[in-house]
Amino acid sequence: MLMETGGQILYAIGALSLVVMALVSRRISMGETLRMALGWIAIFAVLFVLFSFRSEFKQIWNRVTSDLAGTANQSVTGSTVEITRGDDGHFSLVAEINGRSVPFLIDSGATITTLSSESAQAAGVEFDRSDYPVIVSTANGRAKSWRATVGNMKVETISLDNLNVHVSDNLGEVNLLGMNFLDQLGSWRVQGDKMILEP
């Protein structure tokens, strides 16, 4: 590692020397040469820092993008997915439905995974309100929902096809990931503040 860093420094010094010699050969004034040399030194310094700390910058970038995507509480080890409990005491995750990101609250008390009508429409999940509705009991009382099928639902390394779901107008922005998803996993369990999902 030390040899590699030393080689990088020598390479940078050599490149900078070539730039300085090129400037001197053009017979530019000493002050102008000095300003240009300092500018090149600054450029080389920035490039050197970016290269040296590339792994740290990659970690920062991954954290920022996961925060923006809402997946900061999700991590993958091999094929195992770990979900960290949120500040509200619940487990939530972001799944992909037909390639579109959809947030879910994990609800082991829900028999069937249920989408809000807004999320279903955004993800291209078709349902027909002219069909006979299913009446379900929720925390807010009884509500109508309609049967539908999700072509593909993916949570990190876990992918399920043709998952039966309900679509409801009464969920607002909340989507519930229920037991019919969890039951198709190899296993799932809660350990402290982690929910562990295994395909």
UniProtKB/TrEMBL annotation:
<feature type="transmembrane region" description="Helical">
    <location>
        <begin position="6"/>
        <end position="24"/>
    </location>
</feature>
<keyword id="KW-0472">Membrane</keyword>
<dbReference type="GO" id="GO:0008233">
    <property type="term" value="F:peptidase activity"/>
</dbReference>
<keyword id="KW-1133">Transmembrane helix</keyword>
<dbReference type="InterPro" id="IPR011969">
    <property type="entry name" value="Clan_AA_Asp_peptidase_C"/>
</dbReference>
<keyword id="KW-0378">Hydrolase</keyword>
<dbReference type="InterPro" id="IPR001969">
    <property type="entry name" value="Aspartic_peptidase_AS"/>
</dbReference>
<dbReference type="InterPro" id="IPR021109">
    <property type="entry name" value="Peptidase_aspartic_dom_sf"/>
</dbReference>
<feature type="transmembrane region" description="Helical">
    <location>
        <begin position="36"/>
        <end position="53"/>
    </location>
</feature>
<protein>
    <submittedName>
        <fullName>TIGR02281 family clan AA aspartic protease</fullName>
    </submittedName>
</protein>
<keyword id="KW-0812">Transmembrane</keyword>
<keyword id="KW-0645">Protease</keyword>
<dbReference type="InterPro" id="IPR034122">
    <property type="entry name" value="Retropepsin-like_bacterial"/>
</dbReference>
<dbReference type="GO" id="GO:0006508">
    <property type="term" value="P:proteolysis"/>
</dbReference>
<dbReference type="Pfam" id="PF13975">
    <property type="entry name" value="gag-asp_proteas"/>
</dbReference>
